Amino acid sequence: MREASTGASNEASTGTSNEANNERVLTFSVLNRDHRVGEAEIRIEPDGKRITHFAFRDRGRGPDTRTTSMFDRTGALRWLHVTGVDYLHAPVDEQLEESRGVLSWRSPSEHGQAPAGAGWYVTAQTSIDPYALLAKALRHATGHRLKLLPAGEAWIDDDTTREIAIAGVTRRLRRVAIAGLDYTPQLIWLDEDDEMFAGGDSGFAEIRTGAEPVMRALLADDLAWSSARAARLAQQLAHRPPGGKLAFIHARVYDSERRTVVPDATVVVAGDRIAALGGPATRVPPGSRVIDAHGRTLLPGLWDMHVHVQIAEAGLLYLASGVTTVRDMGNHPEEIDARLARLDAGTEIGPHVLRAALIDGPGPYTAPYGITASSLSEALAAVTRYADAGYVQIKIYASIPPPWVPAIAAAAHARGLRVSGHVPGGMHAAEAVEQGFDEIQHVNYLFLRFLAGPGDDTRTLLRITRVAERGAELDLDRPDVQRFLDLLAAHRTVLDPTLVIFDGQLTSDPGELEPLLVPYADRLPAQVVRVRKSIGLAAPGGQRARFRASFAAMQRLVKRAWDRGIPIVAGTDRSAGMSLLRELELYVQAGIPTTEVLSLATIGAARIMGQDRDAGSIAAGKRADLVLVDGDPTRDIAALRNTDVVVCRGVVYDPGELYGAAGMRPR
Fold first, then answer.
1. Distance CA 193, CA 172 (A)
2. Which of 236, 258, 279 is the last residue in one of the domains?
3. C-alpha torsion 463→469→475→481, nearest 10
4. Which among 2, 300, 387 has a CA at the least distance from the CA of 170?
5. 230 with 329, same domain?
6. Which pLDDT band holds residue 16 (cuts at 50, 70, 90)?
7. What percent of the chain clears pLDDT 90, i.e. is strictly above it?
8. Owning domain of residue 335
9. CB-side exposure of 539: number of CA atoms within 13 Å?
């Protein structure tokens, strides 16, 4: 692969054609790494009508949509219809049409209209064609910018042509970075006719049929571009105090160990460590950058204990939200290791990352990342590999055969690694605990202990739908439920509830923005708002009230666990940074005292991960990971959203700058 000058090419593009009617068909493979997990097709008819099919499979989930679109002579979209099912298999019916100079659109989650020509309509549903069409329109637009419908603006952030050898033929492909749609620019590859050639990321990517072997090279090129962008942002947004000297004065300091607030405190930072915590008379070294924190609260940096860091912009959002440490619960090993190296080198902005290693078994519901073990010996070898690489935890996934669990857990414990995970299909949560789990991810697995029958496959969407439909019926005072909670308490089994996931899936109707994003609604990229208005689980027959009652039962169970002394960690498995603040809010709503919630998200997490001597509280000698918020979150947990200053590794960040770099507007 080599860089070439930009510009059009006369070289023919790939695809099949029907010479009788001049119809052109472009076919694609959808890949997870090198495995084909789906397919797509773009059919271009002689009159310009485009008919697109897009589908992939992900652990029993995945979209399957068909899109028909028509355009006017200028290439502007004038009619569109999308049908099928979305990622969680909810029905899709999105339509756009022009009548008398007015564009009107409607779907289960939105409706609206605008004068024709007022902007470029972008579909809310996942497909393969819209971004390529948008990229083509942007390339011909003034300033390479376009207003979007229903809202927002998109622009080309980069446009580079590459010459790539595919099946022995040199092709000129164009890599276009479209900004304004999401937190991170969307990277797609166009062929010589500006038609879609490839796109996606290391999780799921689509590429023209027959060109699959070059997908890794294209993704590597994408990564190089993203890494260079991240390095530029790191230079611009990291504010290093002069001589590494920093001080906060007149701050309310949250003491996470005693769960109290220290008034009018001074905190002195030297390099990446806290040098002193004291009263107003505490000496501030000359030349320090001094931040007057009067009226604000200084807390230890927050911990999100369940993430999957896959884009550089996630690091910006974590720090902007006051999250300075995360636990990655499963990723492609080479990618998370490379990201960790960039974070340590300061060429990417982000929190400290603790790595948990995901191991799964083969089959139709295998996780799309981590290591897939085809035998117990391969699983045990993976434990050794991860332990040698400095990982701190093994996450057992749902397709691991239950008989393997005790051996995997024993091998991990022998190397000092924690063990957690999804409860494998064919097991229930009590068995997982008895056979070596130190922690259980996702509160729904506690419900499935009582709601799943012998023939139920909990690797499928049933693990969500069964709890949504019947969770409210579970009597938490039943003797068997009480015995189960006793078991968790006796084993000191940690619970990672990830309530924020189910908050969106169970409580949101079509058209309602996912609750975690509501406080940020007027600041988000427009396309993020649209997509996250259709996140709720389909609730036919007026079942939404039942689903909401089941979610309330989840909150009650978390509170019962807390009352029993079962350790809880705040993890999200959702939107970077912002989701943790909602997770903590849900704990408070469940009845856990606010000061306790702040403690479990700081020193509590550090203790569980064996890092409490180095982090988790504001004390001399500990890491300089701090967040200054406007207000008092010990009285109102929502004040955590008012981040004014964040310090990570002794470097100072302005949350407004970080949010802006991730495509969000100032508050």
1. 10
2. 236
3. -10
4. 2
5. no
6. low
7. 81
8. 298-661
9. 24
Residue 203 maps to a domain: yes
Cα torsion through 195, 198, 204, 210, rounded to 10:
110
Q: Measuring CA to CA, which residue among 660, 643, 665 is closest to residue 580?
A: 643
Per-residue pLDDT, 13: 41
Co-location of 303 and 170 in the same domain? no
Residue 559 in contact with residue 599, Cβ under 8 Å?
no
Q: What is the DSSP string of 138-179?
A: HHHSGGGEEEEESS-EEEEEEEEEEEEEETTEEEEEEEEEEE
Angular region, 387: left φ>0, alpha ψ -120 to 50, beta rest? alpha
Q: Domain with 619 in it: what CATH number?
A: 3.20.20.140
**Residue 258 is assigned to a structural domain of this protein:** no
Q: Give me the DSSP letters along 457-513.
A: -TTSTHHHHHHHHHGGG--TTSHHHHHHHHHHHHHT-EEE--HHHHHHHHHPPTTSP
Residues 55 and 150 in one domain: yes
**Average pLDDT of the segment spanning 8-33:** 65
368-391 residue pLDDT tens: 889 999 999 999 999 999 999 999
Per-residue pLDDT of 430-442, as tens digits, reads 999 999 999 999 9
Q: 466: buried, middle or exposed (CB in 10 Å: 19+, 13-18, 0-12)?
A: buried
Q: Which helix (H) or strand (E) holds 409?
A: helix 405-414
Task: Provide the pairing of β-strand 643-648 with 651-653.
Answer: antiparallel
Residues 329 and 212 in one domain: no
Record the pTM: 0.92
Same domain, 42 and 191: yes
- Give the whole-angstrom CA distance, residue 304 versus residue 353: 10
Say whether pLDDT at 40 is over 60.
yes
Query: Taking CA 534 as the corner, what is the angle to CA 530 and CA 536, rounded to the nearest 5 degrees?
Result: 150
What is each CA distance from 255 to 12, 136, 251, in whole angstroms? Answer: 66, 55, 12
Percentage of the residues of the chain whose pLDDT score is greater than 70:
97
Is 421 in contact with 437 (CB distance < 8 Å)?
A: yes
Residue with tokens 């890794």: 216
Question: Is 629 domain-assigned?
Answer: yes
Q: Which two structure tokens, joined as six digits, stand for 335?
A: 């990618």
HSE, side-chain direction, 13 A CA sphere, residue 255: 12
Residue 27, pLDDT > 80, answer yes
Of 236, 257, 288, the residue at which a domain comes to its end is 236
Residue whose structure tokens are 């809202």? 151
Asked whether residue 223 falls in the same domain as residue 306, the answer is no
For tokens 């960790």, name the residue.
340
State whether 188 and 311 are in the same domain.
no
Q: Is residue 336 part of a domain?
A: yes
Determine which of 14-23, 198-207, 349-358, 618-627 has the lowest per-residue pLDDT on average: 14-23
Q: Is 100 exposed, middle or buried (0-12, 13-18, 19+ CB in 10 A)?
A: exposed
What mean pLDDT do residues 536-546 have?
90
With a CB cutoff of 8 Å and minimum separation 6, the contacts of 255 are 261, 262, 617, 618
Please compute the mean of the pLDDT values over residues 621-628 and round it to a whole number: 98
Question: Is residue 340 within a helix (H) or strand (E), and if so which, with residue range?
Answer: helix 333-345
- Report how many domains make up the chain: 2
CB 230 within 8 A of CB 347: yes
Residues 394 and 528 in one domain: yes
